[in-house]
């Protein structure tokens, strides 16, 4: 089938799935603002992913429009200067799309890793593995971008699809990093001292990442079809949406309810002020340290006993449970 036979469907899917992905990210940012919570690093990464998503949709829509306005048979027989220039322009946009699309995917992975590091903060062993995961994520992003610029040549008719074997690097690293992000929190989610139904909920929440792995596996055979740019567009649209769901669903789940206003339970200004006049630690960090009580537990106990108090994320504690935990922490100080 000719390349230009299905561009209308590709435009519709890109607009629909890209719009849904953008809506999910906008909803996350809106809820963060609506709940009057301070923006975090993951929210700024979400804004970056939103910009890259809109850029990718715009570039692919422009490419599909150029393809739609051509007669493939006429182009094959009469490659005029105008058609040649259009082809070069389309190829440049395709190469730019590949670079931006990979930045979008790895940006969403960074959002997931930021969320995991926040959930598991305060525990020593997860901290080590989170650092290792950051190194793997950064190196893999550099590898896929470098591989893309080595493979894609905009002067060729099919700029990024001629060297199919080298694209295995992208497919492999994409799937392995998704699997890494799924497996990273699971050992501690299984060991957390919560009812089993609650643990299953948390594991299911973090296992949403299998959507991206499935999309990557299903898309892999299409890389072998150098004539199916529109087919690539179909799966690009699917990855737009699946990546947005995977990266933002845990945060949306935690933002589904407003946190209760916390009444001050500590003496006023119990800690010294910094030189600049700001408090040395926030109430949140104080509460976290009290819940963990890391200073009073030896290293062996820290590595063996994992409790739900390891995180202040509402994923782990409902409002009554958080209130009870805070009350116990206050009583232990008295």
UniProtKB/TrEMBL annotation:
<dbReference type="InterPro" id="IPR052337">
    <property type="entry name" value="SAT4-like"/>
</dbReference>
<feature type="transmembrane region" description="Helical">
    <location>
        <begin position="99"/>
        <end position="116"/>
    </location>
</feature>
<protein>
    <recommendedName>
        <fullName>Rhodopsin domain-containing protein</fullName>
    </recommendedName>
</protein>
<feature type="compositionally biased region" description="Basic and acidic residues">
    <location>
        <begin position="319"/>
        <end position="334"/>
    </location>
</feature>
<feature type="region of interest" description="Disordered">
    <location>
        <begin position="315"/>
        <end position="334"/>
    </location>
</feature>
<feature type="transmembrane region" description="Helical">
    <location>
        <begin position="234"/>
        <end position="253"/>
    </location>
</feature>
<feature type="transmembrane region" description="Helical">
    <location>
        <begin position="128"/>
        <end position="150"/>
    </location>
</feature>
<dbReference type="InterPro" id="IPR049326">
    <property type="entry name" value="Rhodopsin_dom_fungi"/>
</dbReference>
<keyword id="KW-0472">Membrane</keyword>
<comment type="similarity">
    <text>Belongs to the SAT4 family.</text>
</comment>
<dbReference type="GO" id="GO:0016020">
    <property type="term" value="C:membrane"/>
</dbReference>
<keyword id="KW-0812">Transmembrane</keyword>
<dbReference type="Pfam" id="PF20684">
    <property type="entry name" value="Fung_rhodopsin"/>
</dbReference>
<feature type="domain" description="Rhodopsin">
    <location>
        <begin position="27"/>
        <end position="255"/>
    </location>
</feature>
<feature type="transmembrane region" description="Helical">
    <location>
        <begin position="202"/>
        <end position="222"/>
    </location>
</feature>
<feature type="transmembrane region" description="Helical">
    <location>
        <begin position="170"/>
        <end position="190"/>
    </location>
</feature>
<feature type="transmembrane region" description="Helical">
    <location>
        <begin position="43"/>
        <end position="66"/>
    </location>
</feature>
<feature type="transmembrane region" description="Helical">
    <location>
        <begin position="12"/>
        <end position="31"/>
    </location>
</feature>
<keyword id="KW-1133">Transmembrane helix</keyword>
């Amino acid at each position: 089938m000719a390349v230009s036979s299905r561009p209308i469907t590709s435009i519709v899917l890109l607009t629909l799935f890209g719009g849904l992905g953008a809506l999910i990210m906008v909803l996350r940012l809106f809820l963060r603002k609506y709940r009057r919570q301070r923006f975090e690093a993951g929210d700024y990464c979400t804004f970056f992913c939103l910009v890259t998503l809109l850029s990718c949709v715009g570039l692919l829509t422009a490419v599909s429009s150029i393809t739609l306005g051509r007669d493939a048979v006429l182009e094959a027989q009469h490659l005029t200067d105008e058609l040649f220039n259009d082809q070069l322009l389309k190829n440049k946009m395709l190469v730019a799309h590949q670079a931006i699309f990979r930045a979008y995917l790895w940006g969403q992975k960074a959002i997931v890793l930021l969320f995991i590091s926040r959930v598991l903060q305060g525990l020593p062993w997860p901290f080590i593995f989170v650092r290792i995961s950051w190194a793997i994520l950064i190196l893999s992003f550099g590898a896929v971008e470098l591989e893309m610029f080595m493979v894609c040549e905009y002067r060729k008719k099919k700029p990024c699809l001629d060297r199919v074997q080298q694209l295995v690097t992208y497919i492999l690293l994409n799937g392995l990093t998704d699997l890494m992000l799924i497996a990273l929190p699971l050992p501690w989610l299984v060991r957390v001292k919560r009812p089993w139904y609650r643990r299953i909920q948390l594991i299911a929440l973090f296992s949403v990442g299998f959507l991206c792995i499935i999309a990557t596996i299903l898309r892999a055979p299409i890389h072998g079809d150098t004539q199916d740019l529109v087919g690539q567009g179909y799966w690009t649209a699917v990855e737009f949406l699946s990546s947005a769901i995977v990266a933002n669903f845990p945060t949306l789940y935690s933002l589904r309810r407003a946190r209760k206003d916390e009444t001050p339970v500590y003496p006023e200004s119990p800690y010294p002020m910094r030189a600049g006049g700001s408090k040395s630690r926030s109430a949140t960090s104080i509460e976290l340290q009290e819940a963990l009580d890391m200073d009073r537990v030896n290293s062996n106990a820290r590595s063996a006993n994992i409790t739900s108090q390891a995180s202040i994320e509402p994923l782990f504690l409902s409002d009554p449970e958080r209130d009870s935990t805070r009350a116990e922490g206050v009583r232990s100080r008295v």
